[in-house]
Each structure stands twice: as structure tokens, then as C-alpha cells.
Amino acid sequence: MSRLAKRKAPRVLPGSLITLRRKCGKANCQCAAGDSHESPALSYSVAGRTKMLTLRPEEVAEVARAVSRYRKSVNDLAAEAQGELDEFVARVKASRASDRR
Asked: I need a labelling partner for 79 at 20 to 30 A (CA). Which of 10, 24, 26, 101 fits?
């Protein structure tokens, strides 16, 4: 059994935590008066297509934490990559400027 299979809560999840709102169509239901039924869901992309996985109430907190950790990781990596790019561009420009002299 893999480490991932043993872990109960996901560490990181790409996607967004959303709320689905819908009407069931029953004439005497609360949703007929405008109060739609709400369900939490994870919206994610697979091969360019959006998928949604509805969540149980007890799953929402762990999914929210995993999505947050994913976003933080992506933002940290983007900031690191931008710093590396800035340093590389400055180094190449400085090298080329000294070659012209």
C-alpha cells in the first residue's frame, strides 16, 4: 500500500472550494420559494475540463486546508522563480555589457 493510500487527509489539492446552489423541483420545497439547496464542492480541472466533487460537511475543513496549502505552495514557487529570473536576467545583461567594453 502506498503512502498516499495510507493517508486519510490530503496534503495539497489543486482546485477551488465552491458552493453549489440548485433547486430540486419539488413544488412544496423551500427551494421553490427561492432558498436554493447548497452543497460544498471541490472544483478542479482534468485535461482542461472542469470537474466537481461534492463534499460531506465533515470533509470541507480538510479540503479547505489542502487547497490553501496548494495555493501557498504555488505562490511561493512563483515568487522564487521570479527572483531567480530577475537575478539571471541581471547577470546576463551585466555580462553582455562588460563584453561590449
From this structure: 10
